[in-house]
């Protein structure tokens, strides 16, 4: 039987420094004792994006105190912790080094096992902590660094069904905002402007729509936005709003097509597991969304409607667990411990690139900024 486990999680892969203490009982129920996140947004916003050196320095300055705070809020000491889980990739290498070295140091000093966690696995397993989801399910990760559709078969068993061949979706929002003179991060700004805009004024491209493969492409969309903006410059507020609304509509239609195909494939592959016979295993299949772009209400609405139409459950964990946090890293560590997986050796190295699916091919153009999740 799996024992009761308590773990300290550390996350430093991008621009959030985070620490958390999470428990898992023998039945797989979770209990979040603390969840501390320090965003570096203010430090990066002047540059219109994350600056790796600034991020790494900010992690060094904040992490020790954040871990202390996480232990204090959880009302535990290191002696009460069974293991340490630290993100070791993918991400910005400076930040990863800070978090993983700190994790190793604590593991060594306190004599606890260390789990080096894949950040994407943290996102992938969060819905089991928040919604008790069982395997298999589909996960759409849409953040500033990734746009991936992943089949989650089990702990450590992932298949990447689709990924972006160029920009991540959050990146497309950020670049669109930047060229329209909107603040960073661009997603919330574009969404806000789009509310007052005409989504039908510009017919922006919907890349890869209609293709059988499940990949994504957003750089052509961004280029079309730039051209439209240049043609009608100088832009009035209404122009900006119309461009934002038309951009969001193009993204929404693209996701509808791509994810719609993913749901069909899932239904075909798992027809036996999710048959309508009323057996114990015949609950509805689920699509889980994660990453900062999941905050977008229009895109959420599109995905919800798509799930309703296809007989899927749409699972969107609370936003603070969709964006980068240490609870998901702690939980991924707990899930691995619960399978009986051995801890990692203390000489484990951080990996800026680390696909969840070890068989997945690197696609052309992917990863220009793809270190970030
Ligand atoms: O997961 P996240 O917080 O951080 C990392 O990428 O690591 O995602 C941030 C991304 C940014 O690109 C931001 O513009 C986007 O999520 N984002 C949104 C919205 N809120 C944040 N994109 C579209 N609509 C939003 N409301
Ligand atoms: Zn992430």
Automatic annotation (TrEMBL):
Cofactor(s) the protein requires to work: Fe(2+)
Residue ranges constituting the Gcp-like domain according to the UniProt record: 31-331
Record keywords, A-Z: Acyltransferase, Cytoplasm, Iron, Metal-binding, Transferase, tRNA processing
Example GO molecular function: tRNA N(6)-L-threonylcarbamoyladenine synthase activity
Domain of life where this protein originates: Bacteria
Positions with a binding annotation for Fe cation: 119, 123, 324
Locations listed in the record: Cytoplasm
Reaction it catalyzes: L-threonylcarbamoyladenylate + adenosine(37) in tRNA = N(6)-L-threonylcarbamoyladenosine(37) in tRNA + AMP + H(+)
Amino-acid positions noted as binding substrate in the UniProt annotation, renumbered to this chain: 141-145, 174, 187, 191, 296
Alphabetized CDD domains for the sequence: ASKHA_NBD_TsaD_bac (cd24133)
GO CC annotation, single: cytoplasm
Functional note: Required for the formation of a threonylcarbamoyl group on adenosine at position 37 (t(6)A37) in tRNAs that read codons beginning with adenine. Is involved in the transfer of the threonylcarbamoyl moiety of threonylcarbamoyl-AMP (TC-AMP) to the N6 group of A37, together with TsaE and TsaB. TsaD likely plays a direct catalytic role in this reaction.
Family: Belongs to the KAE1 / TsaD family.
Protein name, as recorded: tRNA N6-adenosine threonylcarbamoyltransferase
Species annotation: Rhizobium phaseoli
